[in-house]
Amino acid sequence: MQYCPLCQVKVAGSKRCCPLCRGKLTGEPDPQSEIFPQVVAPHRRARVARRIITLCVLIVIACSIQVETIWHPSSNWPYLVIAASLCAWLAVMLGISRRRLLMQNLTAQALLFSILSVAWDIGTGWHAWSIEWVIPILLLGGVGVLLLLKLILRVPMVDAVGWIGVLSILGWIAPIVLMLLDKVQVKLPSMICSGGSFLTLVILVVFFHRYMRDEAARRFHL
């Protein structure tokens, strides 16, 4: 039987990694001891959706390059179209691949769009709108959306506290660091984001500290 040295548990069946921590297993697999039936996930629709979306993005990129070549050979707008198309493609691919992990998906989307907004800002000459407006809105908005989903969908707190905590910590620290480094001129969005995220983090620590402790212990094997 396989064994996880990190979780210190025996794992029945034939697994590629530990189902708890995703760590490497030792020992020999034993298919005869499998206690769960093998379920084949229906990936066909997801694959078709990925191919259709990828095809649409490639068509948009090809058309923009063709139009620019024929009518406006000296303009730069196709680069913006290509960048926007790739951003949309990345977001949709991430949403499809993690559609069953809603909390994790939304957290990853908020972080992805934050990074893409900075890259977009740099590519268009850097006007600081990404760090002054987009990142504070995405981080604080992400915290709010996760809290709403927790209430509406009745997501167990043990499954939600980790992702809410991640966005709360980032939403609290990132704006403060940017303001201390004097990188933002419009400080109000950063102040609201930092204050709201800090308040959320305090609520989590005061009322749900047990869940946060258990989540940290599970993630970092404390």
Automatic annotation (TrEMBL):
Keywords: Membrane, Transmembrane, Transmembrane helix. The keyword Transmembrane applies. Pfam families: DUF6320. The keyword Nucleus does not apply. The chain crosses the membrane at residues 52-71, 77-96, 108-127, 133-153, 160-181, 187-209. InterPro entries: DUF6320. Signal peptide: none annotated. It comes from the Bacteria. Coiled coil: none annotated. This is Zinc ribbon domain-containing protein.
